[in-house]
Amino acid sequence: MKRLIYAFVMVVFNFSASASYNQAPPSFAHKDHKAIFVDFDHASYVLNFDNLSKLATVESTIDFTVTEEGYPIFDLVPEPLDVTLNGLPVKVELTPDLDNQTQLRVIQLKVPAGTYQLKIKHVITENVVFNETGVASAFWLSDLNDRGYLEKYIPSNVEFDHYPKKFHVNLMGFEGVAHTIKANGKIDKISDSEFEITYPETYTSSSVFFHLFPEKAITKNVSFYYTSIDGRKLPVDIYSVVEIEPFVALTKLLLAELEIDYGPFPHDQVLIYGTTLLKGGMEYSGATATGLLSLGHELFHSYNARGIMPANGNAGWMDEGMARWRDNMYRQSAVIAHNSAKLAGHSIWRRSTDRDSYAQGSAFLAMVAHKMNLKGMHLKDFLRDYFQRNMFTSVTTQLFEKELIEATGIDFSGDFNRYIYGRYTPEEKSMPVIHAEDPHHPEFSKEELLNLTMPKG
User: Fold this and answer.
1) Which residues have a Cβ under 8 Å from the Cβ of 454 and sit 6 or more positions away?
2) What is the DSSP string of 132-161?
3) Three-class secondary structure of residue 3 per DSSP
4) Alpha carbons 192 and 170: distance in angstroms, whole number
5) Would the CA dihedral through 114, 120, 125, 126 be positive or negative?
6) How far apart are CA 352 and CA 315, in angstroms?
7) pLDDT digit string (tens) for the chain, length 457 residues
8) Between helices 379-390 and 245-262, what is the axis angle to 10°?
9) CA proximity to 338, closest of 434, 441, 436
10) What domains are there in the chain, each with its CATH number?
């Protein structure tokens, strides 16, 4: 066994992990040792859409680094097939964390620190449609559901990790049927049936926008350049199954608003899929699939959520709280209606955002804004600097709290303890809370997601 294990170790090993790895969840006990989170270095995916078999299959190659001995962790919701580590077959088990907050794929081979190559084959089971018009596939993500990011479709690391990704898309058996891919990466069309997409190394498992569909499925598509405040000619691509001109006009107004408030748009493109929903959508890095009335909410997320990224589920409240605070016209309040909250007081292994983050998170920020205003300061000014300083990194609630206190000189620690971490005294316990669905991020049915995947516009 020792010979097998040490055969995995590369001759040259760089022990310096990327900065994002410092945000990884802790290792946890597994078998005779522990399951360990790893640092993805690069991931390549070959996506094959076969019209004869009506299957979407994926062949993944992932290079990763291990900094301590243990059983490596990754995630993939569909069942992985034909898994190898450095060319040797390995077993993978679906394993819960110690708090039963989530499940993860653990490679059943204990390895020493080193660099490794993982190869996996599997079938995509979500949001793939084959019909007489062609094939459609989309990676619709969700921050409100466990295991709702890239791992829902292809092997990925958990949210803390930033790493470059490449998709090689093959369409088989669709001769004479043109297809289109919309993505927030660099798209190279090799032929009518072959595409390659390169995503930036700053992207995490929550960043990627990918939508494949028959070219004739959408006829409403407008592309133009928006002149950013930093002088860039920012490419904007809007495609829609509903009236498109309102999206075009509103996008220009929103980009002007957001750049004035928070600085140059942080991504090198704007990609918008206008859906049939009046409200509701999902954010991606420089991209969104959304109804018209949620467009501002989702584009704001390109600064916070998909510009600055949450490192874990306990950091997600900031994304929705800040976006809702903007939706509420940056209101200020001396008091908070609820007695206490636990938006960032969940298990360290939690991966989804607390659904109370919209109402309670924005109420907390309204109180912070009020206290800052009494001292002649403005929360929006702080957020602009905070966004610029931490752009394309993963952040925690603790980092936000620290920077806010240092920048303002106001001790918010008691407020964070009570309204964010849920560390309150018995007399401060929350009143019963009704968990209302947020209009900007509704729960989509499987049928609704499939309708978004294969457009009918």
Assistant:
1) 129, 131, 133, 136, 213, 217
2) TTEEEEE----SSSTT-SGGGTS-B--TT-
3) helix
4) 9
5) positive
6) 9
7) 433 333 333 333 333 334 678 899 999 999 999 999 999 999 999 999 999 999 999 999 999 999 999 999 999 999 999 999 999 999 999 999 999 999 999 999 999 999 999 999 999 999 999 999 999 999 999 999 999 999 999 999 999 999 999 999 999 999 999 999 999 999 999 999 999 999 999 999 999 999 999 999 999 999 999 999 999 999 999 999 999 999 999 999 999 999 999 999 999 999 999 998 767 889 999 999 999 999 999 999 999 999 999 999 999 999 999 999 999 999 999 999 877 889 999 999 999 999 999 999 999 999 999 999 999 999 999 999 999 999 999 999 999 999 999 999 999 999 999 999 998 665 555 444 545 567 777 778 899 899 999 998 5
8) 90
9) 434
10) 2-209 (2.60.40.1730), 218-303+443-457 (3.30.2010.30), 311-424 (no CATH)
179 - beta bridge partners? 214
**Helix (H), strand (E) at residue 115:** strand 114-123
Tokens matching residue 39: 């640092």
List, in sequence order, every beta strand (DSSP E) within 337-435: 394-395
**Rounded Cα gap, residues 94 and 75, in angstroms:** 9
Asked whether 273 and 298 are in contact (CB, 8 A), the reply is: no
Query: Contact at 8 Å (CB) between 56 and 75?
Result: no
